[in-house]
Amino acid sequence: xxxxxxxxxxxxxxxxxxxxxxxxxxxxxxxxxxxxxxxxxxxxxxxxxxxxxxxxxxxxxxxxxxxxxxxxxxxxxxxxxxxxxxxxxxxxxxxxxxxxxxxxxxxxxxxxxxxxxxxxxxxxxxxxxxxxxxxxxxxxxxxxxxxxxxxxxxxxxxxxxxxxxxxxxxxxxxxxxxxxxxxxxxxxxxxxxxxxxxxxxxxxxxxxxxxxxxxxxxxxxxxxxxxxxxxxxxxxxxxxxxxxxxxxxxxxxxxxxxxxxxxxxxxxxxxxxxxxxxxxxxxxxxxxxxxxxxxxxxxxxxxxxxxxxxxxxxxxxxxxxxxxxxxxxxxxxxxxxxxxxxxxxxxxxxxxxxxxxxxxxxxxxxxxxxxxxxxxxxxxxxxxxxxxxxxxxxxxxxxxxxxxxxxxxxxxxxxxxxxxxx
Length: 422
Known about the structure:
Blueprint: E1 22-25, E2 34-36, H1 60-73, E3 77-82, H2 92-105, E4 110-115, H3 124-129, E5 132-138, H4 144-150, E6 151-156, E7 159-161, H5 163-183, E8 187-194, H6 203-213, E9 217-222, H7 239-249, E10 254-256, E11 267-269, E12 272-273, H8 277-285, E13 297-300, E14 307-308, E15 317-324, E16 327-335, H9 343-352, E17 356-361, H10 366-374, E18 378-381, E19 384-385, H11 386-395, H12 404-407
Parallel strand pairs: 1-3, 3-4, 4-5, 5-8, 8-9, 9-10, 13-17, 17-18
Antiparallel strand pairs: 1-11, 2-6, 6-7, 11-12, 13-15, 14-19, 15-16
Helix pairs in contact: 1-2, 1-8, 4-5, 6-7, 9-10
C-alpha cells in the first residue's frame, strides 16, 4: 500500500503553505548514530534556533500528550514531525511508538521524519504503513573522500566506522533509501549543508545523483558555525556562494529556499514559532513517562534521607516519596535487588519501582538508565536536596544541581569517542 502524500499543506515542502499551516516537531529521539563536524546538540539552549536543539526530550506518551495540549492552542497544525534532537532511527523504538500513538490520536495530520538515513532502510515499510508521507534525508556529499571530512564517526549495526570506510557505509545506506521510499509513495526531500571549502563545489553533484534516484526536492542550507565542534571556526557561506550553489543544484532538482532551520522542538508557522512552547515542553517533560499510568511515587538514592547523594549501583535501599497537599512525604524504604546478576538486577528493580514515575540518583550507568526509562521510570542524575528533585518531578521546577545527563547536554560526550550517545 502506498502512502498518500499531502504536499500542498506541508509548509516545509510547499512555500505557499508556510503562512497558513503550522508544523510541530516532537523531540522524542535524543540519541544520534553519527557525529557531524558542524553539529553540537545543546539540548537545553532556549536561545538557539537550529536543528539539534530542544528545551526538553519527551517520551512517546509525553510527546502525544503535549501534542494534544498544543493542538488546543494552535488551530492550524497540519504537520507532525520527528527531527531529533538526535536521529529518529538511532531511536527507532521511541520513534515508531510515537508515530503509532500519533496515528491513533491525529489520523488526519501529515506525518514526516527527518533523518541522516543511516538506519532508515529497515523501517521504511513500517513508517509507510503508519502513514508517514514525507521524509527528509541529510546528504552532504556523494563522494566518500568529501564525506570523510564532514563526519568524525558513524555507528552502524553496533560497529563504529571512521574516515572513508564510514563514509562509504553511510552513503550506501542513504542512496539505497531514496528509491525504496518512492516505491512506497513517500515524498523525499534532501538536505545538504553548504560547507565552504568542503562541499560547496560538490553539492550540484549531490543534486544530480539524488534526482536520478527519484528525490522530489532539495534544500541547500548554509552552515552555521557552532563552537566546540571540529568546524567551529568554519567560514559561513556568503550570499553569493549560497546563490551559486542553489542555482547549479536547481538545474537538476526542484529547490526549497524558505528553510527556517527548525529546532527539534519547533511548533507553529515557519519563522513564527509559538512562544509558549518552552513552558509547555517543560510541563510535559516532568510528567510520568507514560501519563496514562498511575505512578504516584518517586524513588531516591540517598544515604540519610535528606540529600540525593548515592550512585544507584551502591544503593541497597531506596527511599520512596509521594506528593500530598501538605508537601512531600516519605512513604517507605524499599530494598533494591542484590548485585551480581548483571542487567537482570535492573529489570528486577524496574519491576519493583513500577509505581514510581522517576528515580533521583547521584550517578547511574548507561544500561540501568536505559532499562529503567524503557520501563517508564524517568532517571534524573543530580546532587543536592531531595525536596528540590521532588519539586522538579512533581511541579516542573528547575533543578539547580542537576547533572548533565538529565540536562540533556551532549556536546562534551560527542567529540569523537562514539560512546556519548549510546
